[in-house]
């Protein structure tokens, strides 16, 4: 009689399939409770910050309206990141699509630094916010910042809408079947409209806030980040689409300074 153990001894237990709707449960990538909570908090932050901004502007002469304005801009940006993904790129509508923890913690530190700089500058120089700019140019500085914020946000959201399922928040190293080279709409005018949008949106927020140090830091860090990202991404796009992308790159610019 053979002394080898029976086959039943090593019988593998089949992995249990995930129950229907598992990915929508708490702590999962598409957690409905997580999405609802984030959307609620962002919406509440945006509404209250916007109301506070308008109240300070209309009822006082305080420059502190810039702080809730920054929070209103940030909360709207992150909400729209998810909403446009959910509406036009539904398979990728996860809790991460809000981008709240993207490039953590550097991203959070940058915004906290900007908020703190504005707070301290207006505390120590309450009568002359944006003290590094001549007084007659300060209204123009704020106006330019507002235009950049609105334009940047609009262009980025439009880019995500236009690209649809070809858009992704992370660089794709393999071409999916759904990926197509989008050259119409906003992409006919800008080669990387989502990057263009965020770059100028971020700079606009710092102009509105009157920040000098954060403005310089945002310009330097974002330029470095996007120049590297665009270079790497375009190597992959040439691999995916060949001459079609090479020709597209030749005729359409990125409109981010010194980013080819």
Automatic annotation (TrEMBL):
Catalytic activity: [protein]-C-terminal S-[(2E,6E)-farnesyl]-L-cysteine + S-adenosyl-L-methionine = [protein]-C-terminal S-[(2E,6E)-farnesyl]-L-cysteine methyl ester + S-adenosyl-L-homocysteine
The protein's enzyme class: transferase
GO biological process: methylation
Pfam families: ICMT
Organism: Colletotrichum trifolii
Entry's transmembrane regions: 35-57, 64-84, 104-125, 137-155, 198-226
GO MF entries: protein C-terminal S-isoprenylcysteine carboxyl O-methyltransferase activity
Keyword annotations of the record: Endoplasmic reticulum, Membrane, Methyltransferase, S-adenosyl-L-methionine, Transferase, Transmembrane, Transmembrane helix
Chain spans, region Disordered: 1-29
EC number: 2.1.1.100
Source organism, top-level taxon: Eukaryota
Gene Ontology CC annotations of this record: endoplasmic reticulum membrane
Sequence similarity: Belongs to the class VI-like SAM-binding methyltransferase superfamily. Isoprenylcysteine carboxyl methyltransferase family.
Membrane topology type: Multi-pass membrane protein
Protein name: Protein-S-isoprenylcysteine O-methyltransferase
Gene expressing this chain: STE14
InterPro entries: ICMT_MeTrfase (IPR007269), PPMT_MeTrfase (IPR025770)
Annotated compartments: Endoplasmic reticulum membrane; Membrane
Keyword S-adenosyl-L-methionine: yes
